Amino acid sequence: MTVTKRSNSPNWYIQFQFNGRTYVRSSRTTSKKAAEQMEVEWKAKLHAAQFLGHREQLTVRQAVNQFCDSRVDTPNHKGLLTGTKILERLFPMHKAISELTAHDLERLKRDRAAEGAAPQTIKHNLNLIRGAWKFARKLGFQVNELEFPQIKLPKSPLRYLTDDEERRFLACLDPRREIKGLRPFGTRDPDMQRFMQDACDLVVLLLDTGARYGEIANIEWTRIDLVNRSISLWRPKVQNEAVLYMTDRAYEVLSRRFADRTGEFVFTNRKGGPRGYVSQAIRKALRKAGLQDCRIHTLRHTHASRLIQNGMSVYEVREILGHTDIKTTMRYAHLESRQVTSKARDVINRLNQRGTATASA
Cα–Cα distance between 216 and 328 in angstroms, integer? Predict the structure, then answer.
């Protein structure tokens, strides 16, 4: 039997290989015996589907739930659960997944747009259905062919912080700043002092590493090497790892925090666990600094843009950001092009000056 437990769930998970494919789902039970019986029944159904031509029906709700269960250890699992609530409200979840039509998908697209959802959000909603549909087909359930609607995403200029904008932003995060309605720094509640310091330190590390929010907010001390001034960064979104070297101010932040550490994580919540997604203070500081068109991911764009503007190639920046596809990094290509064309101008200027000097001689 291949039923296993996962650290973040009390339920047993069923996982096995059949006909060269890996099958995994939650048993939704804490009884190991019940989970093992479910595995036997599941294997029997797969066997019947392959050798007897029987294909089991599955509702959209069941397909979506099973797909979400299969992604429980991934960074986007929480987002999938949020998307499921939207589908429960607007999509025919009671339907057999084999009965879904392009009309059902188009209607979801239309209804979400009518609610004011952004194109990227609508795309995520449709991708949840697509993922469940593919997962059901992979597991051997009956599905029909579907053509998913195209979502045109609006293009917008790449936003990154200038040096002056960064200074204003960090000033609005300074943990010692005086705030109306808040007691002077020395008399503030220790939890408030820590909360304000955490937000400032986190932003500095995001600016100087180019990492995603969760990669730094939830990082463990075992990944920090203060002797060699390096960070072993694990990127759960793309499942890869890189060693980043600390800037001087990143080293200052991490050295100070290491001296005062209280647990295994660099940034912790009130219970000592990983910080998680707590961004209110950072977003408030962006607004106060007059950067309403910026978001936390702008810090990652800022890091990459500065590298490109100071001579690094798109391919080098790809390695630093950990992009699996160079197309993702190509959004910065126009900055590299600007560097190249300015270098070309300087080359021609030097040649022209040399030619003028020769002619004068």
Answer: 21
| Structural domains of the chain, with CATH | 3-138 (no CATH), 163-339 (1.10.443.10)
* Res 52 pLDDT > 60: no
Task: Give the pLDDT confidence score for residue 91 in this predicted structure.
Answer: 96
> Quick one: average pLDDT of 163-176?
95
Helix/strand/coil (H, E, C) string of the chain? CCEEEECCEEEEEEEEEECCEEEEEECCCCCHHHHHHHHHHHHHHHHHHHHCCCCCCCEHHHHHHHHHHHCCCCCCHHHHHHHHHHHHHHCCCCCEHHHCCHHHHHHHHHHHHHCCCCHHHHHHHHHHHHHHHHHHHHCCCCCCCCCCCCCCCCCCCCCCCCHHHHHHHHHCCCCCCCCCCCCCHHHCCHHHHHHHHHHHHHHHHHHHHCCCHHHHHCCEHHHEECCCCEEEEEECCCCEEEEEECCHHHHHHHHHHHHCCCCCECCECCCCCECCCCCHHHHHHHHHCCCCCCCCHHHHHHHHHHHHHCCCCHHHHHHHHCCCCHHHHHHHHHHHHHHHHHHHHHHHHHHHHHHHHHHHC
CA 81 to chain centre: 15
Instruction: Please compute, for residue 253, the number of CA atoms within 13 A of its CA located in the half-sphere on the CB side.
Output: 23
What pLDDT sits at residue 78? 82
CA dihedral 266, 270, 272, 277 (to 10 degrees): -50
Within 13 Å and on the Cβ side, how many CA atoms surround 190? 1
pTM, rounded to two decimals: 0.67
Q: What is the pLDDT of residue 257?
A: 96
Mean pLDDT rounded to a whole number for the chain: 88
Say yes or no to pLDDT of 34 above 90.
no
